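S2.1 Query sequence (Helix-turn-helix domain-containing protein)
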Amino acid sequence: MQKKSKGRILSITRICGYCGNPFEAHNSTTRFCSRKCYNRDYYLHHAQIMNLKRAELYKKTYKPRNPAKPNPLPASGEITTPVDLISIKEAARRMCVCKQTVYNLIHANQIREIRYTSRLSYVKWSEIVNHFNHNNPKIPQITLPKGKQPLRREVIAKFEKATAKAKLKESTPLWLTPQQVCERYDLSSINIVYAYASKFHIVKKKVHRHTLYSSKAFDAVLEPYPDKTMPSGYITIKEASLRYNLSLTGVRKRLDILGVKYTWFQKSIIFQEDEFVKKSKRLEIA
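Output structure tokens follow.
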């Protein structure tokens, strides 16, 4: 925007000191056409000064380190075998200590460090052994127990399981968890408990996060066969599929279509074979 003074427009054509393009200035002291050119010219001429300031600040903040020099080997005729030279990590592993302990021994001039590069160093295992044999350090001896000792949680779990079984035998509560039902009636899986409860509509209730089933209802369902022997004249679905060349699904469909009564025995469905055969023949004749 041009400046007005008493009706006259004052403008001076000048050359930018950075990009070299002509521009209209309002006074004779303007050197740059824009703020952008001014900043670029400033950083161009002051870059060397700023670098020197950064270098001085870096010297004050960070002190220079002397390059690590390898320690000279002794002039004795002792021959070092490759097996005797081990790393700091391996020495710490053999001594059952941390690496800082090995470094502490090196800084205390108790063992010698053989440094090949600035980041690769070794120690002599023979020197470590001689040092400890000479000073006779008191290292506690750890005696491992013979044989495999059971963990404390395993012992506690075994004890709790035994006490739970004893309590279950002594007194049967009115309500049982699925795990207690499996232990009481010798069922192999919790899914069988759910199947029994769904099939026979066993009463259950919810206590906090746990589902409890009525022990009396399970006694009525599972106690008719306390000797765990299947009654005579009954077969399972698997046996019927093998005898009559039917699939398991086909046997179940026939039971539903023919109206054959079936019941649960342990973890299998059983039904009367004679009734199944008679009604199947009627179905085939029809």
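The chain has eleven helices and 13 strands. Residues 77-81 have pLDDT under 50 and may be disordered.
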